[in-house]
Amino acid sequence: MQPMQPPSHRFRGIRVASTLIQLRRDERSTITERATRVLAAATMWLPPMPCLHGYAKNGKLEAARFLFDKMPQRDVVSWNGMITGYTQNGRIEEARELFDKMPQRNVVSWTAMLTGYVQRGRLDNARELFDKMIQRNVVSWTAMMTGYVEAGRIEEARQLFDEMPVRDVVTWTSMIAGYAQHGRMEDARQLFDRMPERNVVSWTALVSGYAQNGHIEDARDMFDQMPERNDISWTAMITGYAQNGRIEEARRMFHMMPRQSLIACNAMITGYAQNGLVDDAHQLFERLSERNVVSWTAMLTGFAQSGRMEEALQLFEKMPGQTTESWTAIIKGYAQHGFNNDAIKLFSQMQLAGVKPNQSTLISVLTACASLVALEHGKQVHDHILKMGFELDVHVGSILITMYVKCGSIGNAQHVFNRASKKDLVLWNAMISGFAQHGHGKEALQLFQQMQQACMKPDKITFVGVLSACRHAGLVDEGWRFFDIMRHDYHISPTAEHCACMVDLLGRFGNLEKAEDFINSMHFEPDAVVWGALLGACRIHLNLEMAERTAEHLFELEPQNAGTYVLMSNLYAVTGRWDDVAKMRQIMKNRGIQKVPGSSWIQVNNKVHAFLGGDRSHSQTEQIYGMLESLAGQMEEAGYVPDTKSVLHDVNEEEKKRMVFYHSEKLAIAFGIIGVPFGTPIRVIKNLRMCSDCHTATKFISKIVRREIVVRDANRFHHFKDGDCSCGDYW
User: Beta strand 717-721 with 682-686: parallel, antiparallel or unpaired?
Assistant: First the structure.
């Protein structure tokens, strides 16, 4: 019998092609029995190593591992191929398990594992492996050094660079780029001047570094000296001009190019968009005979950043392939321009499409959740972050804390803070400010003390949080003490925000003259925030004379701000000066100023419901008003007396009571009682300051229905429970 011969190359190709089609139909994460048979049939005539590398490179790790396990003999190349496949696809633990089982290793084995750790940011593991290496080559040295550079550990990178026995042009260029990335252009230039040999990449790294750090003249000087240039060199210079606001010079440089490559065209589209020339960007985009995903995403980002969301969406839907970056661009655009519901809906569609979000996507969606107080959506995004391993990132951690703070869940915010293994200044500031906004003054000050003990130096933002904590908690003496510490111990000059906190702190406790004297003693001209703090204190203590003096400053600084006119109208109404109320209304009318209507919203069953005062547009209006009517009787029996002082209309008392009782936050709270499961806090957001009647009424409601109610108004958070509010009636 003749031995079996392999089929011809033609039939072998057909067999492999049909096998791959069958495998693509099998979308499971492990090789099934059917897929195993197909794979075995497909590979019996093919050399195992090319197959293994092909599967690993394309992310078909189960198929690659199946082949690897079936190989009768494995050499170091096959082991290295499998390890590299695992590391390139982020499966670092499986790579290490295989690495530890290797009967023998070469420098490629060690470098593959080392590079895997570096790519995942696990530098301590990488360095441990690096130190154990018996033999190192220039690739392993450069991989370890680059890991330090990307992590911002530039001194450790330089130490490795200096220790290297042999350096190639890639090593030199990586170190130069590292210095440039961290703004250390003098060090980058010194290293460049010492290079034994340079290529176009080295020159371009220095040109790009100068441009990115705002040294555009130095960048142009180096560009002009380049012995040769490629597309990347030209593009680096174009991008530098565009990023530094010199778009006409970028345009001239673009037209000077010997050949306008797609890379340069994409950079020019981005540059136009960044400088507000979206129509110019679109014209260039339309002229392109060839486009890639970068072209589409650059144009999409231009539309989204400028708020032209309809055009952005049309372009997004026309894209031949929607990537993570394109999804992120449009989601970010919707979130930045206040279309938060649309941002969250698009994120849901992104998930259904099976597109994996990146860090920027998640940050944009968290921002949208925070704006809408969409806590449940925010928690779902947090779950994604945990699965993807982003929570350890301090930037993501600070956004998570901010989201939970704005959604009224200070406990979850504190949990994220406590779990963070590394805490930078931004993280500390986010948590201190969060405690302050929720009225937890003592917790905020305790955290500040812990921050000092951790040898973390506070900045001006830290002290805004600390002084706000004192303000919200009414801690006058502590406020003065921290104000002095800020100036004398940390040599931080007070800003308008710091001064506004002090004015508010003094004024709210009746020290109006001291507050006014404090403003007059300031070393810079007080802004509207400072005067607004004093006017708010005048409202609380009904000091009409000082309020009128203060309002004059605000009318001059912000003549179109309706808030000042409304607040003065409130004061006049409370004191019965209806003629002055009418005058204020007439002034607003003459100046074309419209009062911002009070509105509140609440999320129920992952849907946001908005209400205006006296609103009857909701589908469950009858139940909502019925709930309020039911509560009204119980509240009166419990001692509730409507506070009608804020009503700006000269009508009878009964009409005033009716007007205040159907304010937007009361409607939202009533709907929350109906729709939010018992035991879950009712969370409401209000666009204006909560009026005194709604504040009092909500205390009564929380006790009657035995529910925790969290209201975020324009000033702070109010946690109502058992008839009390966390603000201590100080807001």
Answer: unpaired
Q: What pLDDT, on a 0 to 100 scale, did the predictor assign at position 120? A: 79
Q: How confident is the model at residue 287, as a pLDDT?
A: 94
Q: Is the pTM of this model over 0.70?
A: yes
The contacts of residue 396 (CB under 8 Å, 6+ apart) are 359, 362, 363, 385, 390
CA trace torsion 53, 56, 61, 62 (10° rounding)? -20
Q: Are 571 and 542 in contact (CB under 8 A)?
A: yes
CA 718 to chain CA centroid, Å, is 25
Cβ atoms of residues 561 and 535 within 8 Å: no
236: phi > 0 → left, psi -120 to 50 → alpha, else beta; which?
A: alpha
| Lookup: tokens for 87 | 């590391």
Q: Which residue has the tokens 């982003």?
A: 390
Contact 312, 330 (CB under 8 A): yes
92 within 8 A of 116, measured Cβ to Cβ: yes
pLDDT at residue 267, rounded to an integer: 95
Report residue 440 as tokens.
Answer: 């937890």
At 376, give phi and psi (nearest 5°): -65, -40
For the chain, how far is it from start to end, CA to CA, in angstroms? Answer: 97
| 218 burial type by CB count under 10 A (0-12 exposed, 13-18 middle, 19+ buried) | middle
Pairing type for strands 709-712 and 682-686 reads parallel
What is the identity of the amino acid at 347? F
Q: What was the pLDDT predicted at 314? A: 94
Task: Determine the residue type at 680.
Answer: T
Distance CA 489, CA 154 (A): 31
pLDDT score at 652 = 58
Alpha helices by DSSP H, 542-577: 544-557, 562-574
Position 572: which residue type? Y
**In this structure, what is the dihedral angle of CA atoms 463, 469, 474, 477, given to the nearest 10 degrees?**
-40
CA–CA distances in Å: residue 489 to residues 328, 428, 450, 458, 726: 43, 19, 17, 11, 32
What pLDDT is attached to residue 9? 37
Question: How high is the mean pLDDT of the chain?
Answer: 86
C-beta atoms surrounding 160 within 10 Å: 22
Q: What is the largest CA-CA distance in the chain?
A: 116
Helix (H, G, I), strand (E, B) or coil at 128: helix
Residue 649's pLDDT is what? Answer: 58
* Cα–Cα dist 465/467, whole Å: 6
Tracing tokens 């020290």 back to the chain, one arrives at: 511
Which residues in the chain show pLDDT less than 70? 1-61, 64, 66-70, 390-392, 646-656, 731
Report the distance separating Cα 574 and Cα 579, nearest Å.
12
Count Cβ atoms within 10 A of the Cβ of residue 620 and give its class: 0-12 exposed, 13-18 middle, 19 or more buried.
middle
